[in-house]
Amino acid sequence: MKKLEIIIKPEKLEQLKVVLDECGVSGLNIANIMGYGQQKGYKQMYRGNEYNVNLLPKIKVETVVAVDKAETVIDRVVKEINTGNYGDGKIFVYDVEDVVRIRTGERGTDAL
C-alpha cells in the first residue's frame, strides 16, 4: 500500500476530490496548512509599507491506496491539477506497512 500526501492550492480542492472519487479512492483526510516552496511567497503593500508574505495557504490531502492504484492516482492528479505555474503543489509517496480497521479488525487492503 502507498500513502499519498498531496499538497495543493486551496482553490483546487474540489477538483482534486472529483479526481480521487473517479479513481476509486475510498477515504481521505484534509488539513489546512501554511507553507512555501520555490516561490518563497510574495510582496504586499499595506499603507505604504512593503511586507513579505512568505507563508501561503495550502491544503494537504492524505490518502492510502493499493500499490497498483497509486500510479494511476498520481498521474490523474498531475494531469488535472497542473496549471504550469509555481505553487501547483507536490505529491509525497510513502510505503505503508499495514492498515487495521479498528471496528472489524480487518487488515491490509481489506481495511481500506
Explain briefly what this protein structure is.
The chain has 112 residues and is α+β, with helices and mostly antiparallel strands. It is 22% helix and 36% strand.
Describe how the helices and strands are arranged:
Layout: E1 2-8, H1 13-22, E2 29-35, E3 42-46, E4 49-53, E5 56-65, H2 67-81, E6 90-95
Antiparallel strand pairs: 1-5, 1-6, 2-5, 3-4
Major sheet, described briefly? 4 strands, antiparallel
Name the structural class: alpha+beta
Computed Rg: 17 Å
Strand content: 35-45%
Give a structural overview.
The protein has 112 residues and is of the alpha+beta class. The chain has a single domain, classed as Alpha-Beta Plaits. 22% of the residues lie in helices and 36% in strands. It contains two helices and six strands; from the N terminus they run βαββββαβ. The strands form two sheets. It has a four-stranded antiparallel beta sheet. A two-stranded antiparallel ribbon has the order 3-4. A hairpin with a 2-residue loop joins β3 and β4. α1 packs antiparallel against α2. The longest helix has 15 residues. The model has no long low-confidence stretch (mean pLDDT 90).
List keywords for this structure.
22% helix, 36% strand, alpha+beta, two-stranded antiparallel sheet, four-stranded antiparallel sheet, 112 residues, 6 strands, 2 helices, Alpha-Beta Plaits
